[in-house]
Amino acid sequence: MNILVTAAECTPFAKIGGLADVVAALAKHWHALGHNVRIILPKYATIDTDRWEIKPTHIVVSVPMGWWQEYTRVWRGVLPGTDVPVYFLESHDYYDRPGIYGDPEGYADNDRRFLFLSRATFEVASSMDFVPDIIHAHDWHTAFALAFLKSHYRYHPRFARTAGVFTIHNIAYQGQSDPYRVLPLAGFRVEEFHGSWFDHDGVVNMMKTGIMFADKITTVSPTYAREIRWTSAGMGMQPYLNLRGADFLGVLNGADYTEWDPTSDPHIVATYSAESLASKEANKAALLAETVPPHDRIVEVPVIGMVSRLTQQKGIDLLLGCMEQFARSGRARFVILGSGERRYEHALHLLAHRHPTRIILYTGYNSALSHHVIASADYLVMPSLFEPCGLTQIYALRYGTVPIVRATGGLADTVQEYNPVTTEGTGFTFREYSVSAFAHAIERALSYYRHPFHWDRIRRNGMQQDFSAAKSAQQYIDVFRWALEKIGRVV
Ligand code: ADP
Ligand code: GLC
């Protein structure tokens, strides 16, 4: 199958969150299954072209934006460890700026920046003589590609037999925009806006656009698929998901276990497996040696880790509400790696300042350190308000780091409460979004720490789980076949 992927993020080139990991892992596994994959990304100024050997090509593509043609030079690299081509769109106006989306509010012209990406996807594919069976677009950023596929490119010789699949990674970000601004740029008539597939509450909603125009729609876990279709977690998109209910399903994200493997991870101090869990301790000891003065370096105190964007979604309020009680009593130590909203960074800094040896905080984005923290911690917390899938808990399971999570979205699909009677289960969960429910789950989790039998069992159970991207890649291929059937093709 020829698969054309268009997205705002892809590991290792440009990453804010799990979207990047999933785009890369799927492409890698489709390639391994023998499919022909190409990825289109913006060439953000922050991408290290030397490190990833990304080179300019002679291809300059013209991209229709409203009445005008805009131009982009195409750069080319490959997904590391594969020969999957990745095409980067150079645009001084759109992408030569700090970061990816522009913090904290996002750049005012993000609609236009990503519209350009969505439209250029077709022009770049044409320029390289690629006839995709599938266009796979991710989140609101590239949702308009699905509208283009069914309108401007519907009878285009190269795309007439292409099906469009839209994957929702996070329905909280919908990409809203003024119809008078965006529709003319996208080549649609403003007069036909009201009540159209672009219209939600009187503005253009890119998330809705993707949902309505795609042949098939997926989201990143079965539980999140139910939540956003039937509850307010859908953030206004429920009627559209219901309308498209027959074409909508949840495909659980998978991890790239070649990147996240404690037996060979180059970013950790000591590698280990389920058979040599004692070596995991060397990671914890190293982490403590780096951060805690000798008198308080007690390895017996359990370490609770967190690696996360610092936003309301991630339940940082719950963490702030209960961390101090555990730190003060010396029952646990926290190691947090995060970046995001300033108010959370500030509140965490205050607590870390008060308990410098018990609450260890790194603010910033650091990929190598994320591996070190996950390998070194005894537990990993994710008290998310909502969580479409979540990858960090999947990585933690593989590293024998016991997850403590709120049972929502993909967290509910990947972590089962440990049952001491059956000795089944992989972590600790709670439902109610409250500090006390979270604290209670931490208490429960800590109570097993000094029970070698159960402690060993929980960690082994977790390490045996298989949430590999190989599985989800195969499920997406089924979705793609199903999308092609919908447009009358049998593959
Ligand atoms: P989300 O996409 O909502 O942020 P996920 O759990 O799906 O949540 O993915 C988060 C990804 O980003 C994981 O790979 C995690 O390790 C990584 N990550 C989050 N914050 C940081 C950080 N400060 N430094 C390094 N990696 C981070
Ligand atoms: C989003 C979600 C996260 C998910 C990731 C990858 O960022 O917040 O839960 O794992 O996308 O699909």
Concise summary:
The chain has two domains: about 1-255 and about 470-485, Rossmann fold, CATH 3.40.50; about 275-465, Glycogen Phosphorylase B (Rossmann fold). It is built from 17 helices and 18 strands.
Which features would summarize this protein structure in a list?
491 residues; alpha/beta; Rossmann fold; nine-stranded mixed β-sheet; 18 strands; 37% helix; binds adenosine-5'-diphosphate
How would you explain this protein's 3D organization?
The protein has two domains: 2-254 and 470-486, Glycogen Phosphorylase B (Rossmann fold, 3-Layer(aba) Sandwich); 274-466, Glycogen Phosphorylase B (Rossmann fold, 3-Layer(aba) Sandwich), CATH 3.40.50.2000. Helix content is 37%, strand content 20%. It contains 17 helices and 18 strands. The chain has helices at 18-32, 92-95, 110-127, 144-150, 179-186, 206-213, 222-230, 238-243, 280-291, 316-329, 342-354, 367-376, 392-398, 409-414, 435-447, 452-463, 469-486, and strands spanning 2-6, 36-42, 55-65, 68-78, 85-90, 134-138, 163-168, 176-177, 199-200, 203-205, 216-219, 248-250, 303-310, 333-340, 359-363, 379-382, 402-406, 428-430. Helix 3 (110-127) crosses helix 4 (144-150). The protein is globular, with a radius of gyration of 23 Å. The chain binds adenosine-5'-diphosphate and alpha-D-glucopyranose (GLC).
> How many helical stretches?
17
The CATH topology assignment of the largest domain is: Rossmann fold
Walk across the major sheet and give the strand order: 3-4-5-2-1-6-7-11-12
- Estimate nothing, just give the exact number of structural domains: 2
Strand content: 15-25%
**Morphology call:** globular
End-to-end CA span: 8 Å
Q: Classify the secondary structure makeup into a structural class.
A: alpha/beta
Question: What top-tier CATH class of the largest domain fits best?
Answer: Alpha Beta
CATH architecture of the largest domain: 3-Layer(aba) Sandwich
Assigned CATH superfamily of the largest domain = Glycogen Phosphorylase B
Helix-residue proportion: 25-40%
Bound chemical compounds? adenosine-5'-diphosphate, alpha-D-glucopyranose
Which spans of ≥5 residues are poorly predicted at pLDDT below 50? Answer: none
Number of separate strands:
18
The biggest beta sheet, please?
A: 9 strands, mixed
The pLDDT mean sits at 97
Radius of gyration: 23 Å
